[in-house]
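Narrative of activities, Objective 1.

The group set out to show that a structural description can be obtained from nothing but a protein's sequence at a throughput compatible with the screening campaign. Below is one input-output pair from the validation batch, recorded exactly as produced.
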Amino acid sequence: MSENERPVGPPSSTEEQRLAAIAHGSVLLNLFTGVGGPIVALILWLLYSKKSKYVDWHALQALIFQVGVLLLLLLLGGVSAALWAVTIPLLYLVVGFCLLPFALGFSLLTIGVLLGGLVYGCAGALAVLEGQDFRYRWIADMIHQPKP
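Output recorded for this entry:
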């Protein structure tokens, strides 16, 4: 499927459009709750999987994307925390200064993934609100695409 094709037809109502945008935009809840975004996307996906192919498609994409970003953040955050836990006590020795760039690098990478995930999810919400179709790169190609 080319990137310009719609995997599902256009929304049949503005309510469907708004619900799809909420699924994508729920990524902002992760700033306050940690896991609120995937929970909202999961609820929308479960409630609308039989009612609306449009909401189903966008909520499933948002759910997979947000869970993936959350798992990546947990992994990178864990590595960052472990590096800092080793680096700080060893700063009195030369070894600590050698580990410092790695600890800083993983911390910056973690922040970059967090901000990138927020921006990408919000871009999806805005695109859907403007009537455009939105596909997360790689995720949209991996999941089953419903017929319009």
